[in-house]
Design brief:
The chain is of the alpha+beta class. Helices cover 48% and strands 17% of the residues.
Length: 726
Amino acid sequence: MDNPLSKFVPFLVGEFPKQFLELLNGVTHHEQLSKDDLKTKLWNAYEFGSRHHEGQKRISGDSYFESHCVEVAKILASWNMDHITIIGGMLHDTIEDTNATFEEIEENFGLDVANLVNGVSNLSGIRFSSRKAKQAGNFMKMLISVAQDLRVIIIKFADRLHNMSTIKHLPRIKQHRIAIETRDVYAPLAHRLGMAKVKWMLDDLVLKTLNPDIYKEIESKLKSSNKEREKYIRTITKVLNHELEDYNINPQIAGRPKSHSSIYGKMLKRGKAFEEIYDVLALRIVVKKIEDCYLSLGVLHQKFKPIQERFKDFIATPKSNGYQSIHTTVVGPIGKLVEIQIRTAEMEETAEIGVAAHWRYKEGTVKSVDNHVKWLRELLDILQSEENDPKEFMHLLKIDLFGDEIFVFTPKGDLVQLPVKSTPLDFAFQVHSEVGKTCLGAKVNHKVVPLNTELQNGDTVEVITSSSQSPSYGWLKFAITSKARNQIKRFLSKQEREESAKMGEEILTKSLRRLKMLNRLDEVKSAYSKFGFGGETQLVEAVGKGELSVRDIMDKLAPEKDPIEEQETSRFFNLRRKESRSIKLEGITNIMANFGKCCNPIPGDDMVGFITRGRGMTVHRSQCPSLPLLSEESDRLVPVDWEVARNDLFNVRMKVLGQDRKGLLKDMTETISKLNINMTSVDIKVKDAMATAILIIQVNNLKQLDRVVRKISKVKDIDYVERAQL
């Protein structure tokens, strides 16, 4: 294929590869292109990809390009994607796996295709783990990529779907890693984007990989009951068609068993055997108009007895991913329960491929995908503020991405969607940020309730506001939505900065007055650039926080002329410093002190002391989870500083997670040994190809511990390292 004329040969002789023709015939969304133009564009991409992937084989021995890249393009075509996305799918591995460059792809196929291929390549470089801290960063990268162009993740779904369907050729350990990644990342994200068909296909493939025996058992039982099931479907379909014809409704009725993963999930949830799962059968009625959906429902319920508690109307209240359908379960012929879904043809397409069904490519610009991914837009708004806090981000991600939903109403009857376990506070922020910030209380179903009350489906919520009310740290204990938590944290952060600025102004004024230098106040403030600040306010805030002392400022302004004794200003800062070098119990002497076993502080940690009854004082880390319980007796809390010898050692428990391999423990222990760190205990366990190691090491301070964590994190196949409780 090195001959540049070779790409024109198929047009001259009229013979194209079978794989290419299958792809071409599978394209349903032509946009403004004629069939000849589409053929030319797709063939140019086919020839380009084939030439660059020449000689590359999959583990199965098949041609990499034809057996994978073209198959990915076929999947995209079946999802009604535009030719740009299909070409991007066909070439998705060229930058990563061949010598093709971004510029080369842009020159041949345009900037959009080049960006898609590059975006997929960047996603492929992300290694996911089900471990919190690392997972958070990986999710951030992926969501940001998605935000730039949703087609990137759609291509990635097609790639992952095909890889999972051919996973049997890979080593068992690699199969497990990819399957777990698919289960924890891609399947839930597909669900959130409304791609139900993709989700259940991925779920089934994960079950087949991780639990092959269970999958085979369900498969065998489904096959054994296949004839009986098909007969039953024909019976009920005939009855429904007959009934609906009288109302001039000509529906498409199809029946299929539940997915293997869905059946297995219900077996686990209900603690029942396969034979006890009645709703193995699912029937789908597809009609032309929304009115026909409700008419069909009425006819269905007249003919068969409905199960009241298993009725859901997702047409009137669509899911946040755009899914619409009516779900009902009826007692069919011979007393068998049948789950039935009723929807229009448009709803059917949306239910199957979700956001992909709404994608259109027009005149070189990407049309935005409205409310179907509103949740994603909102989540991305907070990425920048939360990206330095992986735990917080994962909390929000769990709620916004994986959580189930409830539907509540405003007093006017407007519908509001919220995650399960939402509170009136979450509701208030969902209505409007200002309503949330001034929320004083709430009425649920006309009864006054606390702000931490858990809302239920169908509740009517009325927010009580007050202009004098403002967010507090206590709100973060029960606010669960990303919007609420982000707004609360922004307000508190602003408030803290204002308080620090006020404190800093006071410290500067009093200190300079005492030194008879008050006339130099403006000069001191204007020297902000010498300390790396962007303005006077930042300098004053730093003083208020204890990050910068008046002595530091004056020594830098006039080191010879204006020496200031430390004792002049120390009393302003002792309580404000975030880090101290010694252990002192301010205002208290000769008292017995113990370290809290719940958090085990070490030098460098922010701390607080708690005066116990009969046991002296217990020292905790300021972020210790026990402290909220103690805050009710805040009068027994005292400020604490460190006062220890340099050679004092402190035990720290570390939890290390990674992919199991030969020599993993050896590499970890050698890394710790090279740092001259004593290790007193080690315990390692392996499950699902993942290794969990518990280490107890001895360090002098937090700085030394951080160095250990960084070094271990760099060990090959280590996914996550954290400090744990002793």
